[in-house]
From TrEMBL, chain A:
InterPro entries: MetI-like, MetI-like_sf
Transmembrane segments: 7-28, 64-88, 100-121, 133-156, 194-214, 239-258
Domain ABC transmembrane type-1 residues, every copy: 65-260
Name recorded for this polypeptide: Lactose ABC transporter permease
Major location (coarse): membrane
Organism: Paenibacillus etheri
Membership in a protein family: Belongs to the binding-protein-dependent transport system permease family.
UniProt-listed PROSITE patterns: ABC_TM1 (PS50928)
Keyword tags: Cell membrane, Membrane, Transmembrane, Transmembrane helix, Transport
Length: 273, 305, 485
């Protein structure tokens, strides 16, 4: 038993080290100047603040961070609401016709985004001339096609399979409406599922690159990944600057995870009895 | 256990008074996503399907029937990309999922200390953007990168491994990179499901004298079946659409040794003189492959109604 | 424990039933002897903490962005409506370009100069990575909508024909405004179609051989010995350098055949024929010789293999290679390592030994400005005509401020071009590059440079792996023939 424990800890420590190491390396690089980064220095340098300063003076990082935050938060909230309702609907009100619809929705996961990009852009280009605030170069155009994903519906449906269904019957007998059941019973009980979904959706939205790239045009609407991409292209990229930008953009996503993981902690410690 | 009840069996629906209404309510729950996905995925997908029967450069396209689909089979770059993608699929997905499940089970043990630290650390790779981590990996696995320095110092290898420029090792590098990035991601799905599992089941099993391994096999796996199926399918799709890592770490090279199908689609659309028609055809080849694999996975691991 | 009452209008249940239900739920849980109740309790607690954190974070984000956008707000409100749409009234010109240290900086110099004289014009420079511009342009043009397209866009010369020919209606002809013969000859091929001029040639990708004179001296070579050599002699020098100093002669990235492109263009050859369409991989003496030299370099042990741009830069910054045969735009990166000042010099590019017509000048990279056929095209064309297409003085500023070596012939006689550079031991580097620019053989890059290059990379791999060069090239030709249509 003792040795098994030992093995568990050893394994986890190694796994944790492997997971963390690239981050340490990233942070160290951010403290060095470009020349040293390209030489592969592994010692912390003194250029962190200079790099960050350069970054903030050369590009409008605050604006990009704000744009990304806005888009990611709205996308996450809408995503969770829509996908959980659908996952719940497909599983709890299961019928042959709904199963067919569900399987059709799943097919939308299978096509690479590159293939539907052009028609999608065309669609928004047309919308632009009618309703400009939903058209090209708006946050809405980034959010609209991305917030409903079959992936998340699938995830909620699979998680709903483990939900104790007797609770719903009990609630129904108590006279709760169908929507009441969803908001009052399902939502509170599935918090850890929501937390996992929120983390994943926020991360995906924050790091989304291809679609914002296509649909956003003006400098003041750009999101963080687009800025980072700009930094790397050119005859003489500043690698210290790029690394500091990567560190800064990783921080918000890490923060969201730290916040949301309280959910997991809560779930876990709560069940110890 | 393992016996999953439906919230509303069809019989129950029929017997209850407001069955019609409940049925309609069910549709209301799924209405919004059905509309959204139809507009933003299926409509463009149909456009892409039509496109896949056309060819030409830029915006001057004309119909060629099945020519594009026939071209696939004589296109050596495409065939290489398919081969590479399947190598990633067969090796990387099982390794990653087993690892993720294993870690999730270890972390779900309430007697474990520093649980928060381990969980956070192992999930941390997921917070990086694909581009960012790819860049970092490219540097680390360079010929004179930290990985080689480390291995040489430990005397595990006598001379540096060409992680990026050797056809075999380049594939290994890609597999290591994806595994690093996505193990924690899948682990979090398992972990969140494990929390929904009633602990008393394990306690009962423990009292019955079932070993940890038996518990894992007889309780954990069946209970997590839906979510395991979910991660398998999404990982399969993810691998078939693999793009950022390959582009940023190896650029598909050396030669075409690490080229993925998605990268080829990208090249056809943007890197070369654009042929969106043929690019759409290659995209649909992915759809067909995913469809077949999903059906197989559903047959093997799916829940029988 | 509280069950949250949502703001849901559809819910018939009032607070009483909710409470009642709560009670039932607790009972249900107890009945199952389940500890989940604690989970929910804890979760609610967790939610509270998360909510609080979220609101703090949001508030701070709002605050921070409010502070930071203060400056930019003014700017954007001045500029009026952005994008190509509004340009007819406000005469706003939107430009897409990449590389803030080079292209963007150059455009900003031109912009300032032009806006001073033409106060009714507002030039809005948008920065995007090159690959990003290619994607946005392709998606936009392919969708058939001019929505969101810029007025002026920078396109790499290797790619230009693919855009000009795939979307012939989308670019604005500049034949009357841009005099082709005032630019370096080799720039006209990529920027025109059938004698119609579409692009304003910008930077020169003229190549030279940057060398570490200190390493060469240790190996027994003077700079004079490098003035007229071929690649075979270059390899011999490389071997001596390697033997004496332990340093590699150059870096090569097996995924990037820039070296091959440089070698074949020096002989006026390309992957495709004069029509820019037919692949000419077999029966291409220059290409075959370039392949053979490439392998000889690899086999002779003088190459440091790299896999990426930063390693390329890192290799010479850290003094690991004795020479860098590449485009003049690398000057800035070479000079970034100030401690190596006085150790570098630039020699002419070696030429091919056996291929006829090979000269000591070639090109790598380089790009040109194009006007899109959207509203505001006249103003945009006018701007380019007055600046990049004719202003020799502007190029002097561009050279001193940004380090651009232009391809406008008249610029070469300016004072900036004859300046000496102490980093290169007082060599008149710019003047040398300008002279070589005019000698670059004109080739038609055609539409398929990158498509064929991907085939060539595979071919090179199997050639390095031991296959016969003729077989490898024949296979590549066959593949190119089927793939390019």
């Amino acid at each position: 038993m003792k040795t098994k424990r030992m093995f568990t800890y050893l394994f986890l420590i190694i796994a944790a080290l492997i997971s963390i190491f690239p981050f340490i390396w990233m942070v160290i690089s951010a403290t060095n100047q470009s020349v040293d980064v390209t030489k592969g220095t592994l010692l912390p340098g003194t250029h962190l603040f200079k790099n960050i300063n350069n970054l903030f003076s050369s590009v409008d990082m605050w604006q990009a961070l704000w744009n990304s935050a806005k888009i990611s938060v709205v996308t996450t909230v809408l995503s969770l609401l829509v996908a959980s309702a659908a996952g719940y609907g497909f599983e709890m009100y299961r019928s042959r016709s709904k199963d067919i619809v569900f399987n059709i929705l799943l097919a939308s996961m299978m096509i690479p985004f590159a293939a539907i990009m052009v028609p999608l852009f065309q669609m928004f280009a047309k919308v632009s001339s009618v309703v400009p605030f939903l058209g090209i170069d708006t946050a809405a155009a980034v959010i609209l096609p991305t917030f409903t994903t079959a992936f998340l519906i699938f995830f909620f449906r699979q998680s709903t399979k483990m939900f104790p269904k007797d609770m719903m019957e009990a609630g129904r007998i108590d006279g709760l409406s169908e929507f009441g059941l969803f908001f009052r019973i399902y939502m509170p009980t599935m918090k850890s599922t929501y937390a996992a979904a929120a983390i994943i959706t926020f991360l995906n939205s924050w790091n989304n690159y291809l679609w914002p790239l296509i649909v956003l045009q003006s400098q003041e609407n750009m999101t963080v990944p687009l800025l980072i991409s700009n930094l790397g292209s050119g005859y003489a990229p500043d690698y210290g600057l790029i690394m500091s930008a990567i560190v800064i953009t990783t921080l918000p996503t890490a923060l969201v995870f730290f916040m949301m993981q309280k959910q997991f902690v809560a779930g876990m410690t709560g069940s110890v009895k | 256990m393992g016996n999953i009840k439906t919230g509303l069996s069809p019989q129950k629906l029929k017997s209850s008074k407001g069955s019609r209404q409940i049925h309609l309510t069910g549709w209301l729950f799924v209405l919004v996503p059905v509309i959204m996905i139809s507009v933003f995925y299926f409509y463009p997908m149909i456009q892409a399907l039509i496109l896949s029967f056309k060819t030409g450069r830029g915006s001057s396209l004309h119909f060629t029937g099945f020519d594009n689909y026939i071209r696939l089979f004589s296109d050596t770059t495409f065939l290489t990309a398919v081969k590479n993608t399947f190598i990633y699929l067969i090796i990387q997905v099982p390794v990653m999922l087993v690892l993720a499940l294993f870690i999730a089970v270890l972390l779900n043990d309430e007697r474990l200390k520093f649980k928060g630290f381990f969980r956070t650390a192992i999930f941390l790779p997921t917070v990086t953007s694909l581009v960012a981590y790819s860049v970092v990996f490219k540097y680390m696995f360079g010929a004179e990168g930290i990985i080689n320095k480390f291995l040489v110092n430990l005397h595990l290898i006598s001379e540096p491994i060409q992680w990026i420029t050797d056809p075999f090792w380049a594939k290994v590098t890609i597999i290591i990179a994806i595994t690093w990035r996505f193990t924690g991601y899948n682990m979090i799905f398992y972990l969140s499901s494990l929390q929904n599992v009633d602990k008393s089941i394990y306690e009962a099993a423990h009292i019955d004298g079932a070993s940890a391994f038996t518990q894992f096999l007889k309780i954990t796996i069946p209970l997590l079946k839906p979510i395991i199926l979910f991660t398998t399918i999404t990982s399969t799709i993810g691998t078939l659409q693999l793009f950022d890592e390959v582009v940023n770490i190896t650029k598909g090279g050396p030669g075409n040794a690490t080229m993925s199908i998605s990268q080829y689609i990208y090249n056809l659309s943007f890197e070369y003189t654009p042929d969106f028609g043929y690019a759409a055809t290659v995209s649909y080849s992915i759809v067909v492959m995913v469809l077949i694999l999903t059906l197989i996975q559903n047959k093997v691991g799916g829940d029988k109604r | 424990m509280r069950i949250k009452t949502g703001s849901n209008n559809n819910t018939k249940a009032n607070k009483d039933t909710a409470k009642e239900y709560e009670y039932k739920m607790i009972r249900w849980m107890r009945s199952r002897e389940n500890a989940s109740i604690f989970i929910i309790f804890q979760i609610n607690k967790g939610v509270y903490v998360v909510k609080k954190l979220l609101s703090i974070m949001l508030a701070s984000v709002v605050l921070l962005s409010a502070c930071s956008t203060g400056g930019t707000k003014n700017e954007t409100s001045n500029s009026g409506n952005s994008g190509a749409e509004g340009s007819t009234q406000a005469k706003e010109i939107t430009v897409w370009a990449w590389d803030p240290a080079f292209n963007i900086a150059a455009m900003n110099v031109a912009k300032e100069a032009y806006e001073k004289v033409n106060s009714d014009v507002k030039i809005n420079v948008v920065e995007n990575a090159q690959a990003d511009i290619v994607q946005k342009l392709n998606t936009g043009l392919n969708s058939g909508s001019t929505k969101g397209l810029p007025n002026i866009v920078l396109i790499e010369d290797y790619r230009a024909q693919s855009f000009l020919q795939a979307y012939p209606e989308s670019f604005y002809e500049l034949t009357d405004l841009v005099k082709a013969d005032s630019f370096a000859d080799y720039k006209i091929g990529p920027t025109s179609v059938d004698g119609k001029q579409y692009g304003v040639p910008f930077d020169s990708g003229v190549t030279g051989m940057y060398v570490r004179t200190d390493y060469l001296e240790q190996a027994g070579y003077s700079l004079d010995a490098l003035q007229d050599i071929d690649w075979k002699q270059y390899i011999e020098i490389g071997k001596a350098v390697k033997a004496k100093t332990g340093k590699s002669m150059l870096t090569l990235d097996p995924n990037d055949l820039g070296q091959i492109r440089v070698m074949i263009q020096s002989a006026g050859a390309w992957y495709t024929g004069k029509d820019g369409q037919t692949p000419t991989i077999t029966d291409n003496a220059a290409l075959k010789e370039a392949f053979v030299i490439y392998k000889e370099m690899m086999d002779s042990g003088i190459v440091k293999v790299i896999s990426d741009w930063s390693q390329f830069v890192g290799a010479f910054n850290s003094g690991e290679v004795a020479s860098v045969p590449t485009g003049n735009w690398i000057t800035a990166s070479i000079k970034a390592e100030a401690s190596q000042s006085g150790k570098w010099a630039v020699a002419p590019l070696p030429k091919l030994a056996t291929t006829e017509g090979s000269v000591h000048a070639s090109n790598l990279g380089g790009s040109s400005w194009y006007v899109m056929n959207v509203d505001g095209k006249e103003a945009a064309a006018e701007f380019l005509a007055k600046t990049f297409a004719s202003d020799a003085e502007l190029y002097q500023t561009l050279n001193t401020k940004v380090g651009v070596i232009g391809t406008l012939k008249a610029a070469a006689s300016g004072e900036a071009y004859s300046a000496t550079d102490e980093f290169f031991k007082g060599q008149k580097v710019v003047s040398d590059f300008a002279a070589w620019t005019e000698q670059i053989p004109n080739v038609n890059y055609g539409m398929n440079t990158y498509a064929i290059e991907d085939i060539m990379v595979v071919a090179m791999q199997s050639y390095l792996g031991g296959k016969d060069v003729d077989t490898v090239l024949k296979d590549a030709q066959k593949q190119a023939d089927t793939q390019i249509r």
